[in-house]
Amino acid sequence: VSSPTSSKLAGNKRRSFSGSGGLLNRMFGSSGSPKDNENAFDKMPGDAKSDAAADPDKKSEAKSPTVGQSRDETSPSGERKRRSSGVARARDMLSNAKQSLHFPSSSSPETKSEKFSTPMQKLGRTDPALSVPQGSLNNSAGESVPGPRSTFRVGVTEDRNKKCRRTMEDTHAYLYNFLSTPAPAVGADTTKTTSDSAVQSSDGQAVVETDNGYFAIFDGHAGTFAADWCGKKVHVLLEDIIRKNPNTPIPELLDQTFTTVDQQLEKLPLKNSGCTAVIAVLRWEDRIPNSQSATGSTAIAPATAAAVKAASDSDSGTTESVNSVQQSSVISQSEAKLREAASRQRVLYTANVGDARIVLCRNGKALRLSYDHKGSDENEGKRIAGAGGLILNNRVNGVLAVTRALGDAYMKDLVTGHPYTTETVIQPDIDEFLILACDGLWDVCSDQEAVDHVRSVQDPQQASKMLVDHALSRFSTDNLSCMIVRFDGQRVQQTVDRKAEPIGVEGDPGSARGNMSEADAIVQQQKEKLETSGQLLDRVPSDIAEEASEPSQEEPGPELNVGAVEAARKDRKPQPEDAVTDGSSHGGSQ
């Protein structure tokens, strides 16, 4: 049995850890006052037992509250309570400390919103096309719906693939009423555009129903800026270039458009951002037979311009007054003769850079209308070598997996933006639908497999979702974007056979009902909205470049090898010791 002295010493020893100034109290706090603790340990255990034995009815009274509390503290449940109390106090202290701190960035809502606004949002205040709200199916071109005479339907599905990707770097755009096909501009009309290139007021103007389509997918890398910008601007630039060059073949105009895109992106912030692109323009054209053309026919506009030029050259020796009269006569005769031989046809033009792909289903067979520009491609490897670059681990200078792209201004000498283009006359009886998709689909699915998978599905939206789900089931590791364009072959055939009113070409009865393209109307509406709210600016904000120079927080895509950017600078020639080649030789130029 312990003596009172030893009990007091033991109590004093325990108080050194759990008393008011003890280590445990400083960490977790005390469950009782120092006085209570002192009484609890000074009281003899034997005294409590004797009192309880003398009067059993007072057994509960013999157990003082302090003694019970002391015993509870030594039990497992008491230990848990004490720990939870300490955690709660620590949490309160941390909360108070946070509230006492001052963060300048959160001083005002305006400062915070300004800090987190993106370069695209700021540029949209000077260029309304960049601030056009997303349309249905996340359409970057805005809201576009089929008209009563539309002969195609569009379905789009996109998926970030959250198991593999933190960000979505794909964008897409489509229009049901792209610009009308211009009439031939000859003689004095060659310097006059078919319609105003600048966006006009929409008061009293109706959007022309053209049944001409525009479809595009942009797969970004090193951030989303380039892909987002292209989704908003490429179709606007393409329409403007077509207006100014009505007699130029569309493949050449697509190349000009891609060059213009690169030039404009180079002047904007985030020069390291880039994107692959696949674009398709589906339009009605009056075409004449041409045995030298791969399609067997030629659009009437460039053919008329060529005929007039040939006639003018032959009459160059005559006097000016006579030449003017003769030229007018030649123009009229040439155009009339060509129109007699022309027929209305449905034509598809495509252009792509990088590994985004477009496939046409023709009578159940997959017909690829694009070219994969990759570092593993032999022809592209030779072109890169001829331009002074290297293919390292199937990447351009070890950086990009694609050899052609829009943007990527820091290595534009090697990664060109000139596209691969095609021209295809649609055959209504056998051409069924188009598939446009980024490499997230094509990495795990062949062209024919994709066609077979959705051929029996008439709803393009359902078909696009099926292909995206198929890619996910095949463990695709990239962002996924898939667009299906389903043709109405019967209605196309009726227009070709002149059983339906012609549409889509400048001068058609339908085109005379309005003089504004759908893209112009969308941009004009947004411009008026910005003007009304006072948000439209005359020049680019000066802080865009400064904000863009900050390190990007975007996750690099599979096309980008960030560690090799330094070796790919335009002002530094690649060295063999920078990386190990893949063993293939690259010589000459394409």
Automatic annotation (TrEMBL):
<dbReference type="InterPro" id="IPR000222">
    <property type="entry name" value="PP2C_BS"/>
</dbReference>
<dbReference type="Pfam" id="PF00481">
    <property type="entry name" value="PP2C"/>
</dbReference>
<protein>
    <submittedName>
        <fullName>PP2C-domain-containing protein</fullName>
    </submittedName>
</protein>
<comment type="similarity">
    <text>Belongs to the PP2C family.</text>
</comment>
<dbReference type="GO" id="GO:0004722">
    <property type="term" value="F:protein serine/threonine phosphatase activity"/>
</dbReference>
<keyword id="KW-0479">Metal-binding</keyword>
<feature type="region of interest" description="Disordered">
    <location>
        <begin position="1"/>
        <end position="153"/>
    </location>
</feature>
<dbReference type="InterPro" id="IPR001932">
    <property type="entry name" value="PPM-type_phosphatase-like_dom"/>
</dbReference>
<keyword id="KW-0378">Hydrolase</keyword>
<feature type="compositionally biased region" description="Acidic residues">
    <location>
        <begin position="544"/>
        <end position="557"/>
    </location>
</feature>
<feature type="compositionally biased region" description="Basic and acidic residues">
    <location>
        <begin position="35"/>
        <end position="62"/>
    </location>
</feature>
<feature type="region of interest" description="Disordered">
    <location>
        <begin position="532"/>
        <end position="590"/>
    </location>
</feature>
<feature type="compositionally biased region" description="Polar residues">
    <location>
        <begin position="133"/>
        <end position="142"/>
    </location>
</feature>
<keyword id="KW-0904">Protein phosphatase</keyword>
<dbReference type="InterPro" id="IPR015655">
    <property type="entry name" value="PP2C"/>
</dbReference>
<feature type="compositionally biased region" description="Basic and acidic residues">
    <location>
        <begin position="567"/>
        <end position="576"/>
    </location>
</feature>
<dbReference type="InterPro" id="IPR036457">
    <property type="entry name" value="PPM-type-like_dom_sf"/>
</dbReference>
<feature type="domain" description="PPM-type phosphatase">
    <location>
        <begin position="153"/>
        <end position="487"/>
    </location>
</feature>
<dbReference type="GO" id="GO:0046872">
    <property type="term" value="F:metal ion binding"/>
</dbReference>
